[in-house]
Amino acid sequence: MKILIVDDEEMSRNILLAKMTHMGTCVAVDSSKKALEELDKAKAEKHPFDIITLDVSMPGMGGQELLEHIRKKELQDKISKKDRVKILMITARMNMGTINACIKRGCNGYLTKPVSHVQLIQILSQLGFEPATTEKTAKEGMSHSAGVAEIIKRFYSGKIILPVFPNIVKEIEELLAGKDPSVDELAKIVEKDLVISGKLITIANSSLYKGLEDVNSLNGALVRLGLQHTLGVCSALATKNLFDSENEALKTEMDKLWVHSFAVATLARRLAEEKGLDNLETVFLMGLVHDIGKMLLMKVFVDMYPDLCISDEDLQFVIHEIHTTFGGVLLKKMNFSKQIIKIAEIHHWEQFEEDTDKELLAVSLADSLSEKLEFGFFSKQDKNNTLKLEEGDLALETGDEFELDHDEIIEKLSGLSALKVLGLDPEKVFSIIKQIHPMIKKTCRAF
């Protein structure tokens, strides 16, 4: 059996590749363009593919367009129905409109992420294949997929309590959108929330905003931060509350995710500033919530399956595979703007069009760089060198001093579509990273 896997996101592509490698000869590509090249090559060699898996949502030519193109080409070549390649659509969301559209275009079936081994065996058997199975069936991994699938089912059925974003952020946005907002008016809004108002003073004295002297009053903190930065800080404080947990194991994962989210938000805002964008605090908020789907999936998983390890690598990969579209739908249910919803959905895309919003590109670029900066959620760390957060601690205790690798980061940047479309100079981006990296480490704890 010859299989072509088409998915623009590397991790999702590799997960599916790992599940199907033992079933036949697999070729995995990251775009529709490369898929068409592989199909032409297979045709020339007279060794066509038996199965194609297509991710529905891809930049450039999407999965549905590629599906339609393949079926039209088969008609032109007068290939009989029974000899046509079997095409499975892979979608992160059970959207009947999308599924029906794919069926009309000629797909043979569909699978929803996270794709489980059992799902693959079942649908391939229905299509008349006899897929080989491994002797070791990885029952725990299958239970992870089934568990996350049950969460998705409950979520769309309205059986999961959604996180609530504090109204204070919206009030500040409305104030700043008005005519001649003042610090006094801002103080009246902020002082309604004792937790946020108290934290603002601590943050105003952190390395990211610190002046020559410490401030010790709310008004002093607001003056130092400024109206726009106060909006960003309040957004960060509101978001940080969503990452809290009393479960020790979950708290460790939430803390890692918070550090990652804060780092992405801070770097994205600075990149947007360098590009001359106006809505910097919107970019900052986009960075803060880009992984919100992952946050809720982990919290609900712990509630539903308290005996399973939330830090299990297989489970985290399953959550990662579904978190983008899930996060987009979650943000929509929480009444966020279309632009913020979009960043949750596309921040792992590897290719971007020229007309992509620059704000989205800034966040995607920051997210892509986070692992190189030691702020990636999946960053590998020594057991004695963990990012364990404690209340009131303003510095990341990471043992040996972390040094940025110039050549490695420049090489990473050179392959990023988001950088090219933004039109930023790689060396300039590195200088920005070098400047704010220590500030991120020292400031993320203040929240």
What's the helix count?
19
Rounded mean pLDDT is: 85
What order do the strands of the largest sheet run in, or round the barrel if closed?
Answer: 2-1-3-4-5
In total, the number of strands is: 5
Radius of gyration: 24 Å
Structural class: mainly alpha
The largest β sheet comes out as: 5 strands, parallel
- Share of residues in strands: 5-15%
- The N- and C-terminal alpha carbons lie at a distance of 53 Å
Can you walk through the features of this model?
The protein is mainly alpha-helical. It folds into two domains: 2-137, Response regulator (Rossmann fold, 3-Layer(aba) Sandwich); 168-446, Hypothetical protein af1432 (Orthogonal Bundle), CATH 1.10.3210. The chain has 19 helices and five strands. It is elongated and about 75 Å long. Residues 134-142 and 380-400 have low confidence and may be disordered.
Please supply descriptive tags for the structure shown above.
mainly alpha, Rossmann fold, five-stranded parallel β-sheet, 447 residues, elongated, Hypothetical protein af1432
